[in-house]
Amino acid sequence: MQLATYRQFFNFKRLFLAYSIPNRSYNSHILYSQHEDIDIPKVTISEFVFEKFDQYPNKISLECAISGKKYTFDDVRKKSQNVAKNFMKLLKLTKGDVIAIILPNVPEFPICMLGALQAGIVTTTINPFFTPGEIARQLNDSNAKVVITSATTYASVYVAIKLTHKIIPAIVAKTKETETLPEGAINLHEFIDVESEIDIERNIQADDLAVLPYSSGTTGLPKGVLLSHHNIVASLSQITCKAVEHWITPTAIKDNVVPAIMPMFHIYGFSTILFAQFRLLSRIVCAPKFTPELFLDILKKHKPNVLYIVPQIVSFMSDHPSMKSEFFDSILSISSGGAALGRLDEEKLLNKAQKDINIMQGEMITD
């Protein structure tokens, strides 16, 4: 069977779609998109993400692949507003303060992040598998005022906070019913649910700092990357425009399903998967960790249309004996990032799928 291979290379920052340039001056040294320019709105991330939520307020937006916990689009907006207000009222955080999120891929991750953004608070994201020393360094370097983590990770975070020689409040999520909340910690689920009678008026501008992810860079220790609301909205505007959307979902899908497999603490996870899929009104299925069993269960149970993965998972899909061709039935496109995906790898995957799939490769660097 001859299978077509669709390859589309994306550099979401520079190559695929150009920013709006009134008068282009073409020359042989500049590569322009084949598509029309797009307008980049001067809005905040939350304004951009929430713009279409009113269309489907009761539609499922987030779901945990393990616990089954679900949030509608209306839930995401309201609970993130609760988070914003509680940052302000209960924790007395002010515009420009930094919080650290050290969570696995759980639905509460984006809710907390959107809450911080609405309050003018900057989020630095930290790998929950970091050592206490690595966590402490980023907490100190970013000057984080609050930590949001899970009961599973709290032991490492507790040691990290001690290493900073600072008093940093911890908001902790129980990811299992059997877990207990550490003494002195704030319950994340209560923090999300408690409604405060205050207004969110922080006069947040598009050029204000929004997120502070850390990049390993090329030399030395990881460095914080200052990204404004406008930086992220510019990227999201390109990722979610009609030209790219057609490549990702060439067939009209009423209920698009996208698994969140990539770590949310990385820009690939929180920008391309979370914020972009919120904008596209997709249902995001959160995978707190990657295991072959959980990944296969997501494919069977949730029948995703789009996969954002890395070459290692492409190889897993091609080689794992439990990965059957019928698991590909709902998949329209696969976007692979993090490293180059070879032609033979693509062909091997398509032979396993026994169908045509749009295979795209993307470059999404933190800075």
UniProtKB/TrEMBL annotation:
Subcellular location: Peroxisome
Protein species of origin: Pyrocoelia pectoralis
Record bears the keyword Lipoprotein: no
Coiled-coil stretches noted in the UniProt entry, renumbered to this chain: none
Statement: the UniProt record of this protein carries the keyword S-adenosyl-L-methionine: no
MF GO annotations: long-chain fatty acid-CoA ligase activity
Major subcellular site: other
Domain AMP-dependent synthetase/ligase residue range list: 51-353
Entry GO terms, CC: peroxisome
PANTHER family: BCDNA.GH02901 (PTHR24096:SF422), LONG-CHAIN-FATTY-ACID--COA LIGASE (PTHR24096)
PROSITE patterns assigned to the protein according to its UniProt record, in alphabetical order: AMP_BINDING
GO biological process, one term: fatty-acyl-CoA biosynthetic process
Keyword tags: Peroxisome
Protein's recorded name: AMP-dependent synthetase/ligase domain-containing protein
InterPro entries, alphabetized: AMP-binding_CS, AMP-dep_synth/lig_dom, ANL_N_sf
Domain of life: Eukaryota
